[in-house]
Amino acid sequence: MTLSKGQSFKNSHKKTSLLLTIDSFHCVDEKGDKKGLVPPSMLSSVLTVAFIVMILVLHEHIYRFLLFQFARDLHPVLDIEKHRHILARHIAVDAFSCAVVAFIGYKNRHFLSQFLTLQRDNNFHQRLHQYNPAGHQVLLFFFSYQVKNMYDTIKWNDGIVFILHHVFAGAAAWGGMYPGVASVYSLFFMGISEISTCILCLLANFDDDFGVKGLDQAFPFTRIVLAFAFVVAFIMCRILLWPIFTFHFWGDARQALERNGPFETPEVKNALRMMMVACCGLTILQVIWLGEIVMISKQEISKLL
Fold first, then answer.
1. CA distances, 119 to each of 115, 247, 300 (Å)
2. Is the pTM of this model over 0.70?
3. What does the DSSP assignment read for 94-136?
4. Which member of 111, 145, 174, 266 has the greatest number of CB atoms within 10 A?
5. Is the separation of the CB atoms in 187 and 138 below 8 Å?
């Protein structure tokens, strides 16, 4: 971690506190900053997860109230309470959470410039084992969102596929924090790449199965704009950038798994294997989703012609 001039660190990694600012993720051990930055205590992370989940619940209920007060008269489809609750979930929880991690990732994009090449070096140790405060921040908020989303998935009966997604995504995020590995990669995989997911969460409101039935007919232009924005963001984040970061992550992970150094502990190796499986699975899914996007785009274009 490159320290800025005059920067000082006062947070002990043993101190229990809510992690609400980027400075709170700058922690040191008993030796001070000679060893460099280390992650905050696990208890601090757990408390912060609980706090963020409560904030998401509050945010969702605020949106329910706002939709009740100001949106139910816009169209008959919004006069139904269940429909307003679906909108509140997708906007105030799903889209909001994805926007937060995407913003943190984008704000710290300078850490990712090293990956924008197909040339590799042997400096995998720094990329995998060096603690990145912004990366930990993304992982913590992302994990908190998975906790809230798991509850919503069960409550709204989204299906087993979504439950498995939240389990694997949450496990990968926690493994990135504790034992702690590849936190810099989270700035893209669980940060910037969520730009497309944020738009998709808004677009999901127009789906007859997972959204509000009839909303697409009530607000057709909004749906078209969101669909176009999603296609552009998906291609940029998931088709163009995703393979590049996957290439580097897999290369670094394979090098680490072949070593038995002091940092390549069994816990770290297990976390890396889990991340590799999750990354591989998501990569395959995105190829499938790209095919579905092409098919749906053709259908929508044919309707307009």
1. 9, 10, 40
2. yes
3. IIHHHHHHHHHHHHTGGGGGGGSSS---STHHHHHHS--HHHH
4. 145
5. yes
| Residues 45 and 17 sit within 8 Å (Cβ to Cβ) | no
Q: Give the 3-state secondary structure of residue 242.
A: helix
pLDDT (tens digit per residue) in 142-165? 999 999 999 999 999 999 988 988
With b for 16 or more beta-carbon neighbours within 10 A and e for fewer, the 254-267 pattern comes to: ebbeeeeeeebeee
pLDDT per residue over 174-216, tens digit each?
999 999 999 999 999 999 999 999 999 999 999 988 999 999 9
Q: Do residues 145 and 197 lie in contact, with contact meaning Cβ atoms separated by under 8 Å?
A: no
DSSP string for residues in 9-71? --EETT------SGGGG-EEBTTBTTS--BPPPHHHHHHHHHHHHHHHHHHHHHHHHHHHHHT
Identify residue 289 by its one-letter amino acid code. Answer: W
* Calpha distance 247→232 (Å, rounded): 22
- Cis, bond preceding 76 (omega within 30 deg of 0): no
Q: How far apart are CA 147 and CA 170, in angstroms?
A: 8
State yes or no: cis peptide before 179, omega within 30 of 0. Answer: yes
Residue 76: HSE in the Cβ half-sphere, 13 Å Cα cutoff: 2
